[in-house]
Design brief:
Strand order of the largest sheet: 1-2
Radius of gyration: 25 Å
Strand content: under 5%
Oligomer: single chain
Largest sheet: 2 strands, antiparallel
Low-confidence stretches: none
Structural class: mainly alpha
Length: 330
């Protein structure tokens, strides 16, 4: 059977194609690299805690989605588009589910109960079962390699994502009601806003693409991932989420390096390449020194706090001893 091809050449290394707008590489690779670096870093530094496992799963699945989306843009084969487009449709609601689990673990330090898991399974089952059918994808246009989506992709996936978003809001408010102090409530609010902002930005481009068939808009939604990482970095530094101490400085430097390095995708002249490379090297060198100084400052502060705590304990023991002696004297 002859393969149906779209009107451009086959991609190089699956992802480099004349059909891809340059900005798409920037939006996708920036989000993918930032997500993987942060996810792996938190996973390793927290000794593979359950929260970090969920975070890495969320970032890993998002990165897989981004890579598949690039391949869909690059390929000129309609059969590849049909297969990968179906996978992308399946991955999107699962990312919402992991976001729900992540917030639940963040608040309650455990996974949801059997009933909640069963409801999620029932909601996902039709999507999994009907992915290979025409209810999901009807076909692919050969003139632009864009899939014609059926009711499953056009409606049911977005219904699922809406329900999971509402679930995130519900457990966030429940968590704020049981929070012990104001700081705990603020952490929950920030985490909820960060997750929802990322999910909505992630989905908004796809919704617009499904309605208008202008799929170039989907690339702008991926900037929701760096936004979520920024919120996560703030929580880690200010509220010591995941018990990471130097993360803020490291996240800042890594983000700057990624942003500067990603400019190589657009640079046309050799002079600009040299200047960008010099800037990248200088930023990296300054960043390493900054991280070392921040780490040293944190260690000194922790040492001072430890001494202050020991002094407080000594004073309390002395006060107790004085009260005891006074009582015995009386």
């Amino acid at each position: 059977m002859e393969e149906l091809l779209c009107p451009w050449n086959a991609p190089t290394f699956l992802i480099f194609s004349e059909n891809i707008p340059p900005l798409l590489y920037y939006s996708h690779f920036l989000a993918i690299i930032a997500a993987l670096l942060v996810g792996i870093y938190v996973f390793v530094k927290t000794q593979r805690s359950q929260s970090s496992q969920l975070l890495l799963s969320l970032f890993g699945l998002f990165s897989l989605w981004g890579i598949l989306d690039i391949i869909i843009w690059a390929t000129n084969r309609t059969d590849v588009v049909m297969f990968l487009w179906s996978l992308v449709i399946l991955i999107e609601p699962v990312i919402y589910v992991i976001g729900f689990y992540l917030l639940h673990m963040f608040i309650y330090q455990r996974y949801p109960g059997f009933t909640v898991n069963a409801v999620i399974g029932v909601l996902l089952l039709p999507l999994i079962a009907l992915i290979p059918t025409s209810l999901n994808l009807i076909g692919v246009n050969t003139y632009d390699c864009v899939a014609n989506e059926g009711p499953l992709a056009l409606y049911y996936t977005y219904i699922l994502e809406t329900l999971f978003t509402l679930g995130i809001v519900v457990i966030a408010f429940e968590g704020m009601n049981i929070a012990k102090d104001h700081a705990e409530k603020v952490k929950i609010v920030y985490f909820m806003v960060g997750i929802i902002a990322f999910l909505l930005a992630f989905t908004s481009g796809n919704i617009i693409g499904s309605i208008t068939e202008d799929w170039e808009l989907t690339q702008y939604g991926l900037f929701g991932m760096p936004l979520f990482i920024a919120v996560l970095a703030y929580l880690i530094v200010h509220y010591k989420v995941f018990n990471l101490k130097v993360f803020g400085a490291q996240a800042l430097i890594v983000s700057l390096v990624i942003l500067i390095g990603s400019e190589f995708f657009f640079i046309q002249s050799d002079t600009n390449r040299i200047l960008t490379a010099i800037t990248l090297i200088i930023t990296g060198a300054i960043g390493i020194n900054l991280i070392r100084s921040v780490k040293k400052e944190i260690e000194q502060r922790e040492h001072i706090e430890k001494l202050a705590g020991e002094l407080q304990e000594t004073n309390e023991r002395q006060e107790g001893l004085i009260h005891f002696i006074g009582h015995e004297v009386k």
